[in-house]
Amino acid sequence: MALYEHVFLARQDLAQAQVDALAEIATKIVEENEGKVTKVETWGLRSLAYKIAKNRKAHYVMLNIDAPGNVIAELERQTQINEDIIRYMTVKVDELEGGPSVMMRKQERSERGDRGPRGDRGDRGPREDRGDRGPRRDRDETAGE
């Protein structure tokens, strides 16, 4: 069987319980057709780069699927019919990621406030000690020029 990542975007006005129900429906479709869903990740309500069907935000959900190709065709057909899903994408992968996806690791990092190597800049010294600029002029002097 082939491995797939299926991501769908649900309308912004849905409650989280409704989004979870959509993920359950997708899981049920896959399992009824002799496939299996190995992981379901809800990435939450995120802003879109541009409006899609009058939505500025969408609930993102990712499913890792181990199934034959005809199962994915049926899943995509059912997804197209559903009015609550505004976009979807299925990608065939060589192997599924173990542990949390990149999006989940990114969320954890932003929640912790981890800024990486630039987080603590230390003492950079007084500002007037910079020799690359001349002395500052008052506004009255520059207004007449």
TrEMBL record:
Record GO cellular component, one term: ribosome
Region (Disordered): 97-145
Superkingdom of origin: Bacteria
Family annotation (InterPro entries): Ribosomal_bS6, Ribosomal_bS6_sf, Ribosomal_S6_plastid/chlpt, Transl_elong_EF1B/ribsomal_bS6
Pfam entry (one): Ribosomal_S6
Listed transmembrane segments: none
Gene3D superfamilies hit by this protein: 3.30.70.60
Alphabetic keyword roster: Ribonucleoprotein, Ribosomal protein, RNA-binding, rRNA-binding
Feature: compositional bias, Basic and acidic residues: 105-145
Family indicated by similarity: Belongs to the bacterial ribosomal protein bS6 family.
Biological function: Binds together with bS18 to 16S ribosomal RNA.
HAMAP family: Ribosomal_bS6
Name the UniProt record assigns to this protein: Small ribosomal subunit protein bS6
Gene: rpsF
